[in-house]
């Protein structure tokens, strides 16, 4: 899927009712996205089966990726501002129970919401930036 099919809006500040949020709108062929979000047993991937990573680029934007944790396959990649990802990680990390939400809306208006605790941030060479990532306590990488 092409990155330009995705629009990413990051709301870094948490409110009383909502965690920091990455809202992603997909306006490409709906069947392709649904296929990538479908498990082998025909169910839909849930938050425990999705990994979110961000790879910094030399310019101000980077690449936000969602992958299927069980297979390692990319669900999709989208362009996102580095400063917004940094703000989201800081806001989530400042909470008593650090977490964030990914809300994915397809071209037909159907939304899926994932509550997540891990967002791994890498530099442009592929090295993990632990201090700039959201990693729950007790997780060994």
Global structural class: mainly beta
Strand tally is 8
With helices defined by DSSP (H or I, 4 residues minimum), what is the helix count?
2
Strand order of the biggest β-sheet: 1-2-6-7
- Relative strand content: 25-35%
Q: Distance N terminus to C terminus?
A: 29 Å
**Low-confidence parts:** none
Mean pLDDT: 90
Which of globular, elongated, flat, extended, rod-shaped describes the shape? globular
Biggest beta sheet summary: 4 strands, mixed
- The Rg value, from CA coordinates, equals 14 Å
Q: How many domains would you count in the coordinates?
A: 1
Helix content: 10-25%
- Name the helix and strand elements from N-terminus to C-terminus, one letter apiece: EEHEEEHEEE
Give a description of the structure.
InterPro entries: DUF5793. This is DUF5793 family protein. It comes from Haloarcula argentinensis. The protein has 141 residues and is mainly beta. The chain has one domain. It has two helices and eight strands. It has helices at 30-36, 82-93, and strands spanning 6-11, 21-26, 50-55, 61-68, 74-81, 100-105, 111-116, 120-122. The strands form two sheets. It has a four-stranded mixed beta sheet with strand order 1-2-6-7, with helices on one face. The chain has a four-stranded mixed beta sheet with strand order 5-4-3-8. Strand 6 (100-105) and strand 7 form a beta hairpin. The model has no long low-confidence stretch (mean pLDDT 90).
């Amino acid at each position: 899927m092409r990155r330009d099919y995705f629009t990413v809006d990051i709301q870094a500040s948490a409110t009383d009712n909502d965690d920091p949020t990455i809202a992603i709108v997909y306006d490409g062929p709906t069947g392709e996205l649904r296929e990538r979000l479908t498990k082998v047993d025909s169910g839909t991937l849930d938050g425990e089966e999705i990994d979110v990573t961000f790879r910094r680029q030399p310019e101000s934007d980077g690449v936000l990726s969602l992958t299927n944790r069980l297979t390692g396959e990319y669900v999709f990649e989208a362009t996102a501002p580095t400063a917004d990802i940094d703000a989201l990680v800081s806001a989530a990390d400042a909470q008593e129970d650090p977490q964030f939400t990914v809300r994915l809306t397809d071209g037909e208006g159907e939304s899926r919401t994932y509550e997540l605790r891990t967002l791994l941030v890498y530099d442009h060479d592929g090295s993990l930036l632990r201090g700039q990532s959201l990693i729950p306590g007790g997780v060994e990488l």
